[in-house]
Amino acid sequence: MRYFIVDDDRASRVMLSTIIDEFELGTVIGEAKNGVDAIPQILMMQPEFVLIDLLMPHLDGIETIEHLHQNGFEGSFIMISQVVNKEMVAEGYEKGIEFFIHKPINKVEVQMVLKRTEEKHRLKNSIMAIRQSLTNFEVPDVKNMKKTTRDHIQSILNDMGIVGEVGSEDIIQIIEQLLIEKHKIAPLPPLKEIYEKVAMLTKNTPDDVLKESKAIEQRVRRTILASMINLANLGIVDYTNSEFEYYTPRYFDLTDIRYLMQQIENNDQRKAKVNIKKFIQVLYSEIISKAD
User: Fold this and answer.
1) Cis peptide before 187, with omega less than 30 degrees from 0?
2) Whole-angstrom distance between the N-terminal and C-terminal Cα of the chain?
3) Neighbour-count burial of 127, counting CB atoms closer than 10 A to its CB (0-12 exposed, 13-18 middle, 19+ buried)
4) Long-range pairs for 122-129: beta carbons < 8 A, 24 or more residues apart
5) Which of 54-58, 86-90, 169-173, 245-249 has the lowest mean pLDDT?
6) What does each C-alpha distance from 153 to 92, 150, 230, 290, 291 come to in angstroms?
7) How far apart, in whole angstroms, are the C-alpha atoms of residue 43 and residue 64?
8) Residue 25: is its pLDDT beyond 50?
């Protein structure tokens, strides 16, 4: 499980991070001291859980959650608060908060709450998987064959932690378009040409196609950067992690990932060179090999 901590009190952030690490409850992939700083990072990293303080400068916890929901974030929230009354609890649950953790922070309470939240999360995923299996079972064979390729792509994107990113659907459509046109693995057509063909699936006029193709490029770039950040976080926790060992040297430049790891460890802004063409080419190659 991946956690993001939002609290203006540094001591609280350190304590929560230490508890999560000590009891092996998951990985803290980022933190922020206020909602304004947290929102763009959370939307990029897409953690499963956000531990968020109620009272913060600029944006309080409830306002931050509202902004994240408005931008499509679907992760779970755990509220941290020193003052808890019935009205606040009601508003919190209305906004989608799973549980509350009281201040001063208690190690046992944090451990129990996070384990309960994880169990609820896993149960939800299990139910979704069962429903998906039933749906796939009822689909005619032709459609099942079409879904197999998509499933392979989603599996790879899931390993990199980006299957929930907005740009993941663009990446899937790019690979599907290349497969439809039966392109050779190398060289691929220019990226601009691929973006425009994907844009034509939903847009009709030349202006709309051009505008959408530029939007696709930006979404894909942000999604690939998110995968780099996720892998860098995995590398920091465990350099022998199977996903880190497999995907990092194939899809990315090791120098760029190591640079990201340094940025994360130093709490610097996450910036890196994103090679979209290499990512698409390697993914396309993998999907063709699976099809064979």
Assistant:
1) yes
2) 34
3) exposed
4) none
5) 86-90
6) 37, 5, 17, 10, 11
7) 12
8) yes
